[in-house]
Each structure stands twice: as structure tokens, then as C-alpha cells.
């Protein structure tokens, strides 16, 4: 089998490789992907550092053309790349194609942003002096990504980094190197000069840690777990490095008595269980007021009966497998914890077998949960959600905000008063009214508060905040 190699200083390299396994069918090897060493990582950082002076002064048209070409190729290959994504990560084919389209749109957006770079010219408070405020590239950026959005998250970090003139060392998650390799290959062929974008696939403890230990990375943009995020933060203070961290969530979805029941159930089922609950914006706490509680639970249970869990590529599959054995064990451990804590298992909770060997778990719904239970406080990151019964809107809001996280927060209601109040008072970076907590646009800021995020927002024009540094220049007239 061919080895998909790392790209370092414009050369494909690497003989050590690991198998990329399909979670829908563990007999299928999606491909062999290089596993980089600490030396490879150091070489990649050196290459990015050497390429920075020229790329940081490259013309905006050159950047535009490369980003646009990449976006166009991703869109043209959306079915093929979507199938690769579904095979390596396990989300359903329609979800995977949707994510691929989003990656393409992100490249298109930043291709446009490259042509819109601008500064400010302002008067000085002193006579005969002019003031210019400009944004300059930051330097070498380390990009570290998780497994759950194998093409969109790399896209939303790589595209702005290149757009604003930075060079890159990119380390994707070990579980899903395929889509990352594909977009690096596309960008490389689109005309990026050698060393501007370096790919080092491999272990977090080796490749990632070498990046953290390097004094040559001006910034690290990281998405992943809270634990790894903290390591990125601590090492970055030592190296005086800019960071952007997107981490876990325990997102609430409030359902009020006045909600349209079908809207609430559609939003909650999507939030909690689509993409196998493996979205940082997934809702795992369904906070439901007394008057609608029993009807909501009954309708959710009926809805869950209609969702097919099966091979990600199979037509009619609503929920693919869990990503790997380790995550499956985490999910089933939490299901046991929930039972022991006294929550009632209202639906699911069982492993299921299908035609192919894979990590298949029923969508699992607990009721009679409290917000103090571990299943309500800790991120599970699987198809497991609990219903927490509350008296009224005020209690619902208090419970929604009573969490160490603050990524996304949703409400189902027909009351303008409550929707308006919730949008202002939900302690989250993103708020959804009558919509799932997951599912966001690519051209507007993405990110959270509290334990979910640290640093400036990703995506849209807000991305400039992280990927550039501001200069103020004074000139005597
Ligand atoms: P993870 O922290 O285990 O891994 C993330 C990345 O960090 C991987 O590439 C991994 O190899 C790397 N890494 C691991 N150890 C490292 C080290 N010592 N030094 C440097 N890098 C290291 O997270 P995961 O399991 O891949 O992803 C799941 C988590 O990601 C969940 O907590 C989820 O909520 C979060 N997530 C957050 C967002 C968001 O935008 N907030 C989006 C997607 C996923």
C-alpha cells in the first residue's frame, strides 16, 4: 500500500506509517499515513521559518489565486473527499459531503479576504504627523486539530493563516489524517512556495509536543480537548506565543412550555445525536420546563426510534459509528455512570452489531437527570444526552449557565420575550433560537467562553485578530 507522506520544505517524506481504520468497518484500512518524528517536526518548523520572509511579503493576488484554486478543487471533488471523510471519521455521507462543501466555502471566503486587506490612516493628536495602522502577518503558525471535523477545522485554520501571510506547521489528529493530507496536497499543487505549508502527521505526544516546545512558533491555533488545550497554554506562556484554543462543551438546549414541540424535538435530536454526538457544539443537556416535559420526552423517544445507526456510507443511515474503540468505551462508561447516579435510561444505551464490524452505539437518552450529575457536567462526546426537568424559564436559564463550559447554547420557544432575554443572558459564544446548538455559518465568528475557548474568535473577518499583529506607524509630514 502507498504511504501518504508528510510534506516538509516542499518534499513528500516519511517511511514510518500507521493504518487509518474505518470505524464503520474495522476490517477496512482507509490508507497508510506517515507518522512523523520530533526531528521531522523540527525540520518542518525550520522550513516554515525560512519561507516566512518571502511569503509574508507575497502579493495579495498570489494568495487569492492559490486559495481560490484550493476552494474550487475541494468543491469539484466534494463527493470523493466526502466519502474519504465518512470512511475515516464515521459521520454519514451527507454530513461528510456537507463538511467538505463548507471547507471549500472557507477557502473561497479567505480568497476574497486576501483582496480586502486594509489598514487605517488616522490623524495624529500632534501637528504635522500622520498615523497609519496596519496588520502584519504573525510568523510561523502551529496548527493542531482534532478528529471530529477532519476537513472543516483544518480549512478554517489553514485558509486564514495563508491569507494573512503566515507560514504553517500543521499537525492533524492521528485518527483522521486522510482529509488533511488531501487538502495539503491540493494547496501544494495550487502553487504554494516550498516551506509555506508543512504537514507533519503523527502522535500528539511526539509531533504536537515538539511544536509546543519550539521557540520558533509565533502562534498556535488549537482545537481539541481541555487537557491538551491547557498544555498548549502553559507552554505558550513560556515561549511568549499567541494562542487560540477551542476546546470542549456541555451545551444546553432549553425547551420551554410554549415551544413548538416538533421544532424542539427536531432541534434537540439533531443537536444531541447527529454526527454521533461528536460535535463540540452538540447539546448533551436538554433542559425542559414542567408543562412540556412529558410530551417532549415521549416525542423524543418516538423520534429516536426512527433514527438508523449504521455504516456511514449506507443510504438511509442517520447516525454513523463512534470514531474508535477508546471513545466508545468513554461513552459506555458514562452510560453506566448515569445509571449509577440515578438517571433513568429512557432510550438506547446498547451496543449494536451491523453487517460490518464497527463501533455502533444506540442514541442514548437519560431522563430524571440533575445538573449536578457527572453526565451533566463532564463532556462525553458521544450520542448520549440527558433531560433535566426545571420549573420555569428562570430556572432553565440558571441551569443552562451552570457549567464550566460556554460554547453554544440553544432555546426552543415561541416567546419573543424569552428568546430575546436568552440571547442576551446565555453565557456562551454562540446562541441558537429554535435551531440546533450545532450547525453554524462559515463567514461569521465561531468560538466560546469560559472553559470552552481562549483567545480571539475563529472564522469570518474576526480571524484576522489571531493571524495578524497590529503595527502603528507615525510619520513627520
Ligand atoms: P485531543 O486534545 O486529544 O487532540 C487534539 C489534537 O491535539 C490532536 O491532533 C492530538 O494529536 C494533539 N495532541 C495530543 N497531545 C498533545 C500534546 N501533548 N501536545 C500537542 N498536541 C497534542 O482532542 P480530540 O480527542 O482529538 O478531540 C476531541 C475534543 O475536541 C473534544 O473535547 C471536543 O469538544 C473538542 N473540539 C472542540 C471544538 C471547538 O471548536 N470548541 C471543535 C471540535 C472539537
From TrEMBL:
Pfam family, one: Aldedh
Active-site feature positions: 246
Aldehyde dehydrogenase domain ranges (all copies): 16-472
GO MF term set: metal ion binding; oxidoreductase activity, acting on the aldehyde or oxo group of donors, NAD or NADP as acceptor
UniProt xrefs under PROSITE patterns: ALDEHYDE_DEHYDR_CYS, ALDEHYDE_DEHYDR_GLU
Record-linked InterPro entries: Ald_DH/histidinol_DH (IPR016161), Ald_DH_C (IPR016163), Ald_DH_CS_CYS (IPR016160), Ald_DH_CS_GLU (IPR029510), Ald_DH_N (IPR016162), Aldehyde_DH_dom (IPR015590)
Protein name as catalogued: Aldehyde dehydrogenase (NAD+)
Amino acid at each position: 500500500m502507498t504511504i501518504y507522506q508528510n510534506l516538509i520544505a516542499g518534499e513528500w517524506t516519511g517511511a514510518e506509517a500507521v493504518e487509518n481504520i474505518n470505524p464503520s468497518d474495522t476490517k477496512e484500512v482507509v490508507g497508510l499515513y506517515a507518522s512523523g518524528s520530533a526531528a521531522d517536526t523540527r525540520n518542518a518548523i525550520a522550513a516554515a521559518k525560512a519561507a516566512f520572509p518571502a511569503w509574508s511579503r507575497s502579493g495579495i493576488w498570489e494568495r487569492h489565486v492559490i486559495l481560490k484554486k484550493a476552494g474550487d478543487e475541494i468543491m469539484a471533488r466534494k463527493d470523493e473527499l466526502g466519502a474519504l471523510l465518512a470512511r475515516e471519521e464515521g459521520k454519514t455521507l451527507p454530513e461528510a459531503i456537507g463538511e467538505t462543501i463548507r471547507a471549500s466555502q472557507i477557502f473561497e471566503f479567505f480568497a476574497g479576504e486576501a483582496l480586502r486587506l486594509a489598514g487605517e490612516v488616522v490623524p495624529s493628536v500632534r501637528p504635522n504627523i500622520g498615523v497609519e495602522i496596519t496588520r502584519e502577518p504573525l510568523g510561523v503558525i502551529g496548527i493542531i486539530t482534532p478528529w471530529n471535523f477532519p476537513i472543516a477545522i483544518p480549512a478554517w485554520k489553514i485558509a486564514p493563516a495563508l491569507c494573512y501571510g503566515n507560514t504553517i506547521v500543521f499537525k492533524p489528529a492521528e485518527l483522521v489524517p486522510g482529509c488533511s493530507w488531501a487538502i495539503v496536497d491540493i494547496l501544494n499543487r495550487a502553487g504554494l512556495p516550498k516551506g509555506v505549508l508543512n504537514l507533519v502527521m503523527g502522535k500528539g505526544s511526539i509531533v504536537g509536543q515538539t511544536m509546543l516546545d519550539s521557540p520558533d512558533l509565533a502562534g498556535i491555533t488549537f482545537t481539541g480537548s481541555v487537557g491538551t488545550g491547557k498544555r498548549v497554554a502553559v507552554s505558550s506562556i513560556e515561549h511568549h506565543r499567541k494562542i487560540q484554543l477551542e476546546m470542549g462543551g456541555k451545551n444546553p438546549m432549553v425547551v420551554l412550555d410554549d415551544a413548538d414541540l416538533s421544532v424542539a424535538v427536531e432541534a434537540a435530536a439533531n443537536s444531541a445525536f447527529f454526527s454521533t454526538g461528536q460535535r463540540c457544539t452538540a447539546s448533551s443537556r436538554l433542559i425542559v420546563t414542567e408543562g412540556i416535559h412529558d410530551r417532549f420526552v415521549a416525542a423524543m423517544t418516538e423520534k429516536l426510534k426512527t433514527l438508523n445507526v449504521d455504516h456511514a456510507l449506507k443510504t438511509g443511515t442517520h447516525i454513523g459509528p463512534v470514531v474508535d474503540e477508546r471513545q466508545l468505551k468513554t461513552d459506555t462508561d458514562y452510560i453506566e455512570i448515569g445509571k449509577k447516579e440515578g438517571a433513568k435510561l429512557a432510550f438506547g444505551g446498547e451496543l449494536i452489531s451491523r453487517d460490518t464490524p464497527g463501533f455502533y452505539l444506540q442514541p442514548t437518552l437519560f431522563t430524571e437527570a440533575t445538573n449536578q450529575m457527572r453526565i451533566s457536567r463532564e463532556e462525553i462526546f458521544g450520542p448520549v444526552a440527558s433531560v433535566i426537568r426545571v420549573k420555569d424559564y428562570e430556572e432553565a436559564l440558571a441551569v443552562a449557565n451552570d457549567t464550566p463550559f460556554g460554547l453554544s447554547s440553544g432555546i426552543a420557544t415561541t416567546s419573543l420575550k424569552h428568546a430575546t432575554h436568552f440571547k442576551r443572558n446565555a453565557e456562551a459564544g454562540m446562541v441558537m433560537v429554535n435551531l440546533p446548538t450545532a450547525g453554524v455559518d462559515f463567514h461569521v465568528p465561531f468560538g466560546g467562553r469560559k472553559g470552552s475557548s481562549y483567545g480571539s474568535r475563529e472564522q469570518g473577518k474576526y480571524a484576522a485578530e489571531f493571524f495578524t499583529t497590529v503595527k502603528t506607524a507615525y510619520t513627520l509630514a
